TrEMBL record:
Protein name: DUF2334 domain-containing protein
Region (Disordered): 228-250
Superkingdom of source: Bacteria
Length: 250
């Protein structure tokens, strides 16, 4: 995990539907013009629309990065379980992840980053992610480095809070600026396709990004935060990479 300097991650979620894709494309183009690649959070259910898959592939070719966003649509009630995966056992999490991974890989969108809506993730879920080849698990306020087995508290700035719309937009801009000026190693902005409906919010995100870049932040995707040293996966007939003399117990 990078630890020196200020990095800026801008993520986009809620992708899907023709109108949403149009908004997402305009936003992605605006960010690309600023030299900012996006981390594109996608749930497997959203990939049932070929237009979404095609758009994600085009954006990946331009430097944006896909992130598996939960496992919704793979199994019944799977999303609700991953929304609160505090007690999820390793075996069950592994089954869901295998199915979700297969959906992304079949569309050429393989990834090493998983995004979850909850911050309290069970040890079983983290083990399943690690064993499935993921290097990073991103939550709203934490990042789990699955290879170093370390947890970093880094809030993602979003349009929430008790204030009115003007106050929320102002808080996003000022919060981003303060994070960069404080020299924090990472600043995160999380934007939804629904946010892009509001001109005030689009302007607030653009202002926040411009301010961060002007103050020296370096734009990265979640993929660039994953350590390149990838632990080898066990092969069939082995346990942890060590030959198993009894394949029936593998």
């Amino acid at each position: 995990m990078m630890s020196v300097g200020t990095r800026l991650v801008v993520s986009l979620h809620g992708i899907g539907g023709a109108e949403a894709l149009d908004r997402c494309e305009r936003f992605a183009a605006d960010m690309q013009a600023r030299g900012v690649a996006l981390s594109l959070l996608v749930a497997p259910a959203e990939l049932t629309d070929p237009a979404v898959s095609d758009w994600l592939l085009r954006r990946r070719a331009r430097g944006d990065f896909p992130v598996l966003h939960g496992v919704g649509g793979v199994f019944h009630n799977a999303e609700s379980a991953f929304d609160a995966p505090r007690f999820l056992p390793r075996h069950e999490a592994g089954l869901w992840l295998a199915a979700a991974n297969a959906v992304l890989e079949a569309r050429g969108l393989s990834t090493e980053v998983f995004a979850v809506r909850a911050n309290r993730v069970s040890d079983g879920t983290l083990r399943a992610l690690r064993e499935s080849g993921f290097g990073l698990c991103a939550g709203p306020a934490v990042l789990h480095d699955l290879r170093a087995e370390a947890t970093h508290r880094v809030d993602a700035r979003v349009f929430t809070g008790p204030r009115g719309e003007v106050g929320r937009c102002r808080a996003l801009r000022l919060g981003t600026e303060r994070s960069v000026l404080a020299g924090r190693w990472l600043t995160r902005l999380a934007v939804s396709a629904a946010d892009l409906l509001a001109p005030r919010r689009r302007l607030a995100v653009a202002d926040a990004v411009d301010g961060a870049l002007a103050r020296g932040a370096v734009p990265v995707t979640y993929d660039q935060l994953v350590p390149r040293e990838r632990a080898p996966r066990p092969v069939p007939g082995t346990r942890g990479g060590i030959p198993n003399p009894d394949p029936l117990t593998s």
